[in-house]
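notes to self, project folder thing:

trying the whole complex as one job this time. last attempt i did each chain seperately and stitching them together was a nightmare. two parts in total, labels are on each line so i dont mix them up again. if this works i'll redo the older ones the same way
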Amino acid sequence: MIMTGEDTVQVKKIWQQDERTLGVEWTDARTNLYDVVELRRQCPCALCIDEWTREKKLKSEDVQDSIRPVRIESVGRYAMGVRFNDGHSTGIYTFKLLRQLA
Amino acid sequence: MGFIKDVQERFLGTKAMPGAGLVSEDQVRAALSQVIDPDLHRDIVSLGFVKKIEIRGTVVACEIELTTPACPVKDQLKKQAEDEILKIPGVAKVEVSISAATRGAQGQKAEGITASLGRVKNIIAVASGKGGVGKSTTAVNLAYALSASGSKVGLLDADVYGPSLPQMTRVGNPRSSEGSLVVPPVVDGVSVISSAMFSSAGQATILRGPMASQIIKQFLTQVAWGELDYLLIDYPPGTGDIQLTLSQVAPITGAVIVTTPQEVALIDVRRAVSMFHTLKVPILGVVETMSYFVCDGCSKQHDIFRRGGGSRVAGEFGLPLLGEIPLDPSVAADSDSGQPSVCHHPHSPAAVAYKSAAGAMAAQLSIANSQTGDALMSFSLDWK
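result (full assembly):
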């Protein structure tokens, strides 16, 4: 179980592309752009997705198009956390999830 | 010409060779590029280890800078470099000096931890799946072994429920602060912070907080760790809340898993391995403690807790076995008296095994750091 391939992929660069787009360049040279509103809609935290049933509790229409991050920070070496301007900050977006969302 | 050559040989004691005195730096570089670092699998020139080449006639001096003072193959690299340079025609004498500058993982650190951990090059988790395997003893001895080899080392006792480092190192309480940061007390060159330091009523205000995780967070954000090559964190046993907090707040460079040889211990090792895997923390290797006991009467190795568990689990996950530490009553006595064995009984079998494990760990860390390449260790982005 030594880490190989996909498991070792980390963030190489992260930036604000435009008013509602986040850019991430990965260490395997892949670059992905994320719509921050969609990121909020895909929030993986226990408030937005039921922990037992994995049922989505957050409805897409609950998230306004005007939502924006306030601050994005790394979480250890495996994820990033986002604080949104609606006060929501419990989502931990693992790199694995981010690469699936792209 | 023949006459001059003769005279040179007779009077100067040096053999004149074709091109003598014309040794070029390129030749030396080419010779040194034959020396391969056995851990990083690359030659020392392309790794950027060769810092200085000086040629004075037939004498070549060069300086090689390694990635850790604890490099286990230091002497071997020096010898190889000397041998390769001596092969160059015209070189009569070679002086190779070895120095070390610990390289850390790349990237900016997130704002919250910059003040505290900004100048810490490597953060190492010393963890185990279960308690009682000698994890704290291992953390202390690895720390002092690295320190003895010339590295700047810090030690954080994150075992909030059973802190033992103050006993094992005789460390006192912190006495000074730098702004809002607590300055860790230093014992024999190693900076030490333990939750035990803040448990007495008088000092509880420095680091209060009802949650164990909150205390741990403060150790990583409110302590002036200063410039360190290695910060070793003695994890609490298991895979719970504190372990998760540690791995979320600090960009852990690598983890060392401690275990005893028997199968029941290994079940928990697998859990610890899986936790670090999920958190994307590279595992540097496995240290097996209580591996065997050498009887003073018969000099025979007795495998008290069975044999080879560490190497079995290391093999299972493709991890290096960093060391097998024998059971040694002096280790327990040294821990109780607050003098780490690697300092107090440096020639005891256990201390020798710990020192070799520390070197192997430092080597694995250099490998892990060379593989992370240009990854950001941590980042923060304010949205505009």
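what i see at first glance: Strands of chain A lie at 11-18, 21-26, 31-35, 69-75, 79-84, 92-94.
need to look closer tmrw
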